[in-house]
Write a structure and sequence with these properties.
The chain is mainly α. It has one domain: Arc Repressor Mutant, subunit A (Orthogonal Bundle), CATH 1.10.10. The chain has 7 helices and 3 strands. The longest helix has 22 residues, at 101-122. It is globular. Mean pLDDT is 87; it is low at 150-157.
Length: 157
């Protein structure tokens, strides 16, 4: 191992990504823990909110998750009354996933919390640094965020 000091260890990408993940999780919990959904559930809810009617495999691809994980997530969110699956003419077996009225109400309620989380995560950075951070993380993860303008907006229903 090449580390001779904690500073060298603390500067490694693996350590920083892990710490960043912990920071995101604790920030999410502080802001939305009382709402009763997880960060992963939030991702699924936002994806369905942004593109209603996706099938499970499409939702899995949009989130970069496996289909089994998404299936369990959608089942839990269905049980909570936020999502519903509907038959579709596109596929004999597949079902499209939509928000329920309760899910749409949840999206409207959590919108300010999602914005607050983003502000908290980036509060120590100026506008140019925020844009650069998003670009660099996206590049490291192999994601094209060329259209990112620094703001997350929920689609109005």
């Amino acid at each position: 191992m090449k580390f001779k000091t904690f500073e060298q260890f603390y500067a490694t990408p693996g350590h920083l990504f892990r710490r960043a993940g912990q920071f995101v999780t604790s920030t999410f919990e502080a802001e939305m823990g009382h709402i009763g959904i997880t960060a992963s559930q939030l991702s699924a809810i936002l994806a369905v909110h942004l593109q209603p009617g996706m099938q499970q495999r499409e939702l899995a691809a949009a989130l970069s998750w496996d289909e089994a994980t998404v299936g369990g997530m959608v089942s839990r969110l269905e049980a909570q009354g936020y999502l519903e699956r509907r038959s579709t003419a596109r596929s004999r077996r597949g079902k499209e996933i939509y928000m329920t009225n309760a899910g749409e109400e949840l999206c409207q309620r959590i919108g300010p919390h999602v914005d607050a989380i983003q502000r908290q995560l980036l509060k120590r950075l100026n506008a140019a640094e925020r844009k650069e951070l998003i670009y660099l993380i996206s590049k490291a993860m192999g994601v094209d965020n060329a259209q990112f303008d620094g703001k997350l907006k929920l689609r109005k229903s």
